[in-house]
Design brief:
Layout: H1 2-9, H2 15-28, H3 34-40, E1 41-42, H4 44-50, H5 56-63, H6 67-79, H7 97-110, H8 140-143, H9 164-173, E2 181-185, H10 197-205, E3 209-214, H11 219-224, E4 227-230, E5 239-242, E6 248-252, H12 264-275, H13 285-292, H14 300-306, E7 309-310, E8 338-339, H15 343-347, E9 375-381, H16 395-400, E10 405-408, H17 410-416, E11 423-427, E12 432-439, E13 447-451, H18 467-470, E14 492-498
Parallel strand pairs: 1-8, 2-3, 3-4, 9-13, 10-12
Antiparallel strand pairs: 5-6, 6-7, 9-14, 10-13, 11-12, 11-14
Amino acid sequence: SLKAEAHLRLRPGTDAALALGMMNVIINEDLYDHDFVEKWTYGFDELAERVQEYPPSKVAEITWVPEEEIKSAARMLASAKPAAMQWGLAVDMVKEALPAGQAIVGLFQITGNVDVPGGNIFPVELIAYSGGWGGELISEEQKAKRIGLDTYPLLALGFQVAQTDELMKTMLTDKPYKMRGIWLQTNNAIACMGAEPKMVLEALLRLEFNVVVDLFMTPTAMACADVVLPAATYPEKDGLRLGDGLQRGEVINKVCQIGEAKSDAEINLMLGKRLNPEAWPWDSIEDMLSSMIATTGMTFPELREQAPLYLPFEYKRYETGKLRADGQPGFNTATGRIELWSTFYNQCGLDPMPYFDEPNPGPGATPELMDEYPFVLTTGARRWSSFHSEHRQLDRLRRMDPWPYIEIHPDTAAELGFVDGEWVWVENQMGRAKRTVKITPIVDPRVVSCDHGWWLPEKGPENLYDVFDVNINNLVPMACGKSGFGANYKTSICKLYKVEKGE
């Protein structure tokens, strides 16, 4: 019920402020877990000082959540033993996503809900895949060419990726070196996840050779691909499925073959063996999958017989040294404690403690724009009938949700003269997109919400399935946070007006 109430009231992009306001109440009212904080955390005094900047009265103004409800939620969390957090994608889709996550996690850390039954746990990993594989095969000279390292030091500490915004700049400017081609796999950038999609298309078209691996001929494939490789669907491949959280080992079992389609893993194995055979020593997908789960002591066929597989698990492993490589009690950090004041962030030149940064543009950061763009826009709403940009061409699913929508409060719709189902333009200083009106009380009168991932397969490839007419990412800027991570997909501003005949 707390989640439902917050969904109705919380201004998009202000999760960090809400968490800091709740932390203010818990600390000032002496509701935190003193024993756990004293024994197992680092930087509590600094955190206690930081949260004084976020009294509930101030946080209520920022978030639109009433002050008494902030206090009530904080007291409820502090008294709940145990309590667990489930956090959704929206937290990652604000510009300062890292401090937002740090603030939310901090609530559960100072209340002692860490690695206890019913609390938040450190999962046992069947496969430690977060850092990727193969880094040891790349020379130091080549590693130094990774785009974004000079701008965002955090990338050098455990993240095996290039920084997306900087990569886009490189594709457009040829600096610090020219990009020649791109491999796009499970990626429909123009229709789905690419902010400023027209700029993304411009960047892709400057490259000399583009490969797309996908299930369908998407707008991205049609726009830029020199080669398209057909990927296998779920029943056409063998594979692994690892559950999130407390990982369970499951297998995907191939039961059919359609045309020449191959699984993503098989495509990667074939290419890898051509480019660098020593790095891809396996003779089959089965061998490669068995190698990936070698730490379990099982082969892929053996896992297939036993799945689902759960590794042994126990609570409070920080007390027995099972979270650290050196076997000492504590956590796997530089201080051996949960770092409320992060030595890791501090090393990268970032603020070591959580903070709230006003979404820009927005009511708090750019009030001068609100007369022209009076609504807070949030994007990325989900539908049962689709998964991101997939399934738009499947008739049965499309009949469930035939058009892209914008959710509008009844009072707002009445004020603007909108009725259910009519087409309107959503516009801001970045661009505009078409939407059909969906009137619902679930959104605040000051907020409008759009789903994402739209293209219209029935419109044909000549105009890229009208993707630029209906893509809400036309209104989303490509601009990351101070760390190089995060972007304001979930919060911007906009105005609304009706689509005229012929548009």
